[in-house]
């Protein structure tokens, strides 16, 4: 079966690292481009991390493009502490001679969508700024993208205020644009993650003896700075094997104006009624409710086998 063309949009990021690692190990997806967006750190820092990850995973042929240096209507606001000073805890990866694409993220996304003739999926695990700009700039893009998978939001509590989740809160206007495209959206939010919590020592037990020593060392050093689920990795795992999550179909709206609740994902779990009307393009999102921790661990065990060289 031919692999699904995908663009991976990310702000690496501790959990972004493991999401990328999973995606890169899969036979299901063909990563046509990786694009970077500020969030866990500045654009400059996350892009340097991305170049280092690209080298570490021995990638070639995949485009790597930097995105926006600031959010659509807001400045970049790097959260103190969450991902450490380098964005990968304290780990600094050597970017080697990995070069960036000359084009910006939104142009690369559009070009890859055109090339893929309607088959492209986007997996977005950072703020949705690059996607918002892409849909704003290219009116026909929404007809060319098959599905968007998002780590973001929550059906319950948040991590940036009581209800807001970081990726959506950083750029709620971009998120609003994306959720209104009418493209099928898969949303994995904070509510679904707890069963997939993993600590560094548990991760080490899943690694085979012959894993590449640099890969092992980087994984375990990054994990020293992480003490809650790897949100982005759970999201990628949930589309590599959709049995990982239990799903509901529901409308999701983004709050962009309230001073108290800007950035929250309003998931109409009870409703099934399109209260907000619209142009008919709007459709229900596939939202993860909970996940299967055992399957997730098994997927990590299989993933590590692909990094033995
Ligand atoms: C999301 O925000 C970032 O800290 C993580 O990389 C993840 O994408 C979780 O709220
Ligand atoms: Ca992220």
Mean pLDDT comes to 94
Number of strands: 10
CATH superfamily: Ribonucleoside hydrolase-like
What's the helix count? Answer: 10
User: Approximately what portion of the residues adopt beta-strand conformation?
Assistant: 15-25%
What small molecules does this complex bind?
beta-D-ribofuranose, calcium ion
**N-to-C CA distance:** 26 Å
**Uncertain ranges:** none
Q: In the CATH hierarchy, what is the class?
A: Alpha Beta
Give the helix/strand class: alpha/beta
Order of helices and strands: EHEHEHEHEHHEHHHEEEEH
State the assembly state of the protein chains: single chain
Shape: globular
Report the helical percentage: 25-40%
> Any idea of the CATH topology?
Inosine-uridine Nucleoside N-ribohydrolase, Chain A
Biggest sheet features: 8 strands, mixed
The radius of gyration computed from the alpha-carbon positions, rounded to a whole number of angstroms, is 18 Å
Q: Which strand order spans the largest sheet, edge to edge or round the barrel? A: 3-2-1-4-5-6-10-7
- The CATH architecture assignment turns out to be Alpha-Beta Complex
Number of domains: 1
Give a topology summary.
Blueprint: E1 4-10, H1 14-25, E2 29-36, H2 43-56, E3 63-66, H3 105-115, E4 120-124, H4 129-137, E5 145-151, H5 166-170, H6 172-179, E6 185-188, H7 200-205, H8 213-223, H9 231-240, E7 245-250, E8 252-254, E9 265-267, E10 285-291, H10 293-305
Parallel strand pairs: 1-2, 1-4, 2-3, 4-5, 5-6, 6-10
Antiparallel strand pairs: 7-10, 8-9
The structure holds beta-D-ribofuranose (BDR) and calcium ion.
């Amino acid at each position: 079966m031919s692999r699904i063309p995908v663009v991976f949009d990310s702000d690496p990021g501790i959990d972004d690292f493991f999401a990328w690692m999973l995606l890169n190990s899969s036979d299901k997806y063909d990563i046509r481009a990786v694009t970077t967006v500020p969030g866990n750190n500045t654009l400059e820092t996350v892009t340097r991390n991305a170049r280092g990850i690209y080298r570490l995973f021995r990638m070639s042929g995949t485009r790597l493009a930097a995105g926006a240096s600031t959010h659509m209507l807001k400045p970049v606001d790097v959260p103190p502490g969450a991902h450490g000073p380098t964005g990968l805890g304290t780990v600094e990866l050597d970017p080697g001679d990995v070069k960036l694409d000359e084009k910006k993220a939104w142009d690369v996304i559009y070009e890859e969508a055109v090339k893929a003739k309607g088959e492209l999926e986007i997996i977005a695990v950072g703020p949705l700024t690059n996607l918002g700009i892409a849909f704003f700039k290219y009116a026909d893009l929404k007809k060319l993208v098959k599905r968007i998978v998002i780590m973001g939001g929550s059906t319950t509590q948040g991590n940036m205020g009581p209800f807001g989740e970081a990726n959506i809160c950083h750029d709620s206007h971009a998120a609003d644009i994306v959720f209104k495209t009418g493209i099928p959206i898969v949303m994995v939010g904070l509510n679904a993650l707890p069963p997939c919590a993993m600590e560094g020592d548990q991760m080490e037990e899943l690694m085979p003896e012959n894993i590449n020593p640099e890969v092992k060392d980087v994984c375990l050093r990054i994990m020293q700075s992480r003490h809650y689920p790897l949100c982005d990795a759970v999201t990628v795992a949930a589309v590599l094997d959709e049995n990982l999550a239990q799903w509901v179909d529901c409308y999701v709206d983004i709050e962009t104006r309230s001073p108290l609740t800007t950035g929250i994902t309003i998931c109409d779990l009870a409703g099934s009624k399109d209260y907000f009307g619209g142009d008919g393009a709007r459709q229900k999102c596939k939202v993860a409710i909970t996940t299967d921790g055992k399957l997730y661990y098994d997927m990590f065990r299989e993933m590590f086998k692909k990094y033995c060289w």
